[in-house]
Each structure stands twice: as structure tokens, then as C-alpha cells.
Amino acid sequence: MDLCRNVQPYTLMAFDNFFTSLPLLEMLHHKNIYAVGTIRVNRKGLPAEITVKRGTRDQMCLKPGEFMFQHAAPISVIKWMDTKDVYVATTAFDPKRVQIIKRKQKDGTKKNMFCPLAIVEYVKNMGGVDRFDHFRSSYSIGRKSKKSWFRLFWFLFEAALINAYILYSQGHVMRNSSHRQFRLRVARGLVNNFSSRKACSTILKNKKGGVYKISDEVRLAKVGVHMPRAGTKRRCRFCSTRTNPKRSKIECSSCKVPLCISPCFERFHLPYVPHNL
Predict the structure, then answer these.
(1) Could you tell me which residue ranges the PiggyBac transposable element-derived protein 4 C-terminal zinc-finger domain spans (predicted)?
(2) Is residue 14 scored above 70 in pLDDT?
(3) How far apart are CA 108 and CA 36, in angstroms?
(4) Average pLDDT over residues 150-167
(5) Which residue, among 244, 275, 243, 248, has the nearest Cα to 264 in the 3D structure?
(6) Cα dihedral 38, 44, 47, 53 sign
(7) What percent of the chain has pLDDT over 90?
């Protein structure tokens, strides 16, 4: 209620199940503020027909795309079956209204499915928050600590990291622009080759001594020192495939990987491959 203190009447508020409760929706409605949010099944006041556990005798079995609801003005509680049960409470939308959405199947095809309008609007308004939570959960760096400020520090650090990745993706077309690769490049930049060990190398080698991965810091930095030199005939790291193997006696003096002299040597050391090459 404090967060909504300056919200204008007839505004739609969307929040996740951490906040959603029936008393909150009712108080907001008295201020002419409409709301929609996912809700936890253990919240007080939810109808038993909606919250009955799966597998019990009284449960109504819902197939994907089916839903049920209970309405007591001004609040509607909706249970919709997606891949699992989704619970939503709202004062803004008619629980009977639905839209057709597409859901990807296991075989890769897309299938039309009925979805309550309240859930469609919730996803539309909460998309940014859900995307942020998805990025955080993919590679979480938060750690438990007795110090209360530590959790806040890791949250702000992850928020800065995720926002930087989104901005970076909008302005760069990279071959390795995945979230994981971006985090690895940031981590290597922050470490800056520091190690408590005497020997430290960013070129990763296998047990036999062969190079199997080149970090972007080595591959793209000081391109002028990447000179071709003669070596043993091996498969080109850039263009060779299982179906079309290509071998070269030329290798990079810094990366220590075999490359065709043209055009692979130049393309391998570019942050992205231009369309005209």
C-alpha cells in the first residue's frame, strides 16, 4: 500500500505471488486501483475448489489450456493448466474472457491453447521482471552470509550485470554473445589474469597438452601479435567440420591453433564475421 501511495486511480498494478493476497486486492480496489498477480495456494481466503491438491479425490482434473475460476466481487481467482497449475487473482479482468496463445510442444511444433485474459495481461506487464528472474536463476552468484548487506550487494551486482548484458546484446552482433559467454568475459576482465599461483594462463589445455579453448581476451586482444607460422598439419579450428574436414599447416603464434591462411585466419580474430567476407 505504501508503494501505491502516489498511484493514480484506475491504474493497473501487476505483482508476483510474493505480494498478492486477497485483502491487498480488496484494499487497492477501494482506492480504484486495479490489480492482477499470481498467488500462492496457501494464502488465506482462497476457495477450496481452487486450491485442492493434485491427486486428491475432490480435485477437478484440468487438461492443458483448461481453467476454472471462482468470483466474489470484486476479486476473481483463476486456476489455469499450462505445463503445471497457474494461480492468478485479479480485480481488473473478466475471468470468463480468454485469448488463444501458442505453446511450443516437445516435437518443436506450436499448438494453439486457450489462456485466460488475466494471465495474458499479467505476462505482458510482468515480462521484464520474469526475464530478470530468469537471468538471475540461470547463473546465480548470490551466497549465504551472516552479514545482512551481503545479500543486497550480490543482488545489485547481478542487476548491473544483467542490465549490462541486455544493453551489450542490443549494440553488438557477436558469434558468442550468449548470457554465459558474456558473464565469462566479464569475470575474466575483473580477474585481469590475477592468480596466487606462479603460473597462470588464459589458454586452456587438455591432458595431452593440446589447446581446446581460446578465451576472447587472447583471441581478440593485440591482433597484431597474432602471426601465422608453420606447424604440423591439423584440422582448421574455424572451418573444419566432421562432414567437411579441412587441414592446414599454418597456426596462430599466439592462440596456437591451426587455421587456413585465407580466409579463416582473419575471420577467427574478428569479434564478429562481416557479411561481405
Answers:
(1) 229-270
(2) yes
(3) 31
(4) 88
(5) 248
(6) positive
(7) 15
* Dist. CA 158–CA 177, nearest whole Å: 18
Confidence label for 171 from pLDDT (cuts 50, 70 and 90): confident
- Rounded CA-CA distance 260/248 in Å is 6
What lies within 8 Å, CB to CB, of 158 at 6+ separation is 136, 140, 141, 142
Do residues 45 and 72 make contact, with C-beta atoms less than 8 angstroms apart? no
Write out the H or E segment, with its range, that includes residue 211. Answer: strand 211-214
The residues near 45 (Cβ < 8 Å, ≥ 6 apart) are: 21, 22, 23
Question: Residue 88: its pLDDT value, please?
Answer: 93
Q: Which of 202, 201, 214, 216 is nearest to 251 (CA)?
A: 214
Exposure string of 49-70, with b = 16+ CB inside 10 Å and e = fewer, is ebbeeeeeeeeeeeeebebbbe
- Bridge pairing between strands 34-38 and 12-15: parallel
Q: By mean pLDDT, which of 1-5, 194-198, 225-229, 252-256 is the weakest?
A: 194-198
116-142 residues labelled b (16+ CB within 10 A) or e (exposed): bbbbbbbeeebeeeeeeeebbeeeeee
Q: Given pLDDT bands bounded at 50, 70 and 90, which one contains residue 201?
A: very low
CA 88 and chain centroid, separation? 23
Would you call the peptide bond into 228 cis, given omega within 30 degrees of 0 as the criterion? no
Dist CA 49 CA 199 (whole Å): 65
Of the candidates 241, 212, 242, 239, the one whose C-alpha atom is nearest the C-alpha of residue 250 is 239
Q: What are 34-87's pLDDT values in tens digits?
A: 999 999 988 888 888 888 766 555 566 788 888 889 898 899 999 998 888 889
How much is the pLDDT for 173? 64
